[in-house]
# Entry
Amino acid sequence: MAGNRSALLHRNMSAPPRAAVGGDGPYVVDAQGRRYFDGACGAAVSCLGHSHPRVAGAIAAQLNRLSFVHSDVFTNEPAEALARWLVDRTPEGFGEGAMLVLGSGSEAMEAALKLARQYWIEKGEPQRARVIARDMAYHGNTLGALAAGGHPERRKPYAPLLIDVGRIPACHAYRGQAEGESLEAYGARMADALDDEIRRLGPETVAAFVVEPVGGATMGCVPPAPGYFERLREICDRHGVLMIADEVMCGMGRTGTLFALEQEGACADIFTIAKGLGAGFQPVSGVLASEKVVQALRDGSGLLANGHTYMSHAAACAGALEVLRVIEEDGLLARVRDLGERLRAGLEARFGDHPHVGDIRGRGLFQAFEIVEDRAAKRPFDPARRIAPRFKRAALEAGLITYPSAGGVDGRQGDHVLLAPPFISTEAQIDAMLDTCAAVLDDVLALQPA
# Structure
């Protein structure tokens, strides 16, 4: 080690982050003993906080029995139990499907894309290789997942390495709904863009459509318009296209139901899940394949073409299963809905008439507010003002972890603050988080441009 320089390759090499040494429920503790309320759960991950004894105990007990076996040789009880628990709770229409257990959300999206490809090979339609996704979506950071994502600046450095993906506009009412247009009509118009893109590419070439039920990191908790997903499902069925629902961020209770898509009256052919699945206690993610998809493989080769070394990791599965049991047994889905109503009401009370907050949106404990220079015109601040990064830094100094992002309008312009506190938060903690956000926003906006 050269002097005090870290040997770890940090995200920001000029300003390494402060060191965390402990966790206490919804709080993170740094090396100086300072406590930070985790108003973002890292990135919608730590839904049970940072020190849940049941989950830690389940992982420790599994480590003392069996930590890892290769899935090409053995299965293991925690993986089997986790898959059964989730498949039994999938939305109506999923059928008797099956699950892959992997290590990260990006890995899950890669596996989902490969699974969709294998499905069409098994069905005797190998020409179906095209994928369609939405503008400004985020689906992960590996190359296939990044290709499906629609954030221009995140894609830009790797553009020569990315597969070509069909693209349609996101269903983002604040930014796209026309004057005088109902939400239902707007949703139908946005869904019909998928039909247009499938026809443009040729239905016989399209394998899958990838979509977040509630847009996450890049757009900031954008919910769909009423009827949007029902119409998407009809369009996919009409053309034989698989629907992949990316619930890595919005799923596993974050919006108030186990699967976010439950609230839309539709079911996907493939789900990707992560983040809240393991609550941060172990790296874990999943791909849930519907009965239709699984049956095609069974009737075909009977083999899964895509394997991973740490697939079905026993300790990770034990932890994830205990997380889900705690959520169910402690009634935390109802708690998310109740706290979500308080969070939304608090956001409206503090920012509903704020001259620089253009939109408040989200579901459950997955809410965001968009910061604008001109509320009436919905005009974002100049990116040079660095509103989102400044908010993040100022909130952290005030003892609050948030998840602000820049570029939510077009990849470059737009600032929003995403809030995703733990399911175990108290009402007083939610209120204190909102008070801090209000004070921080005023301080940040008072700063002159750099």
In short: The chain has a mean pLDDT of 96. The first strand starts at residue 20 and ends at 24.
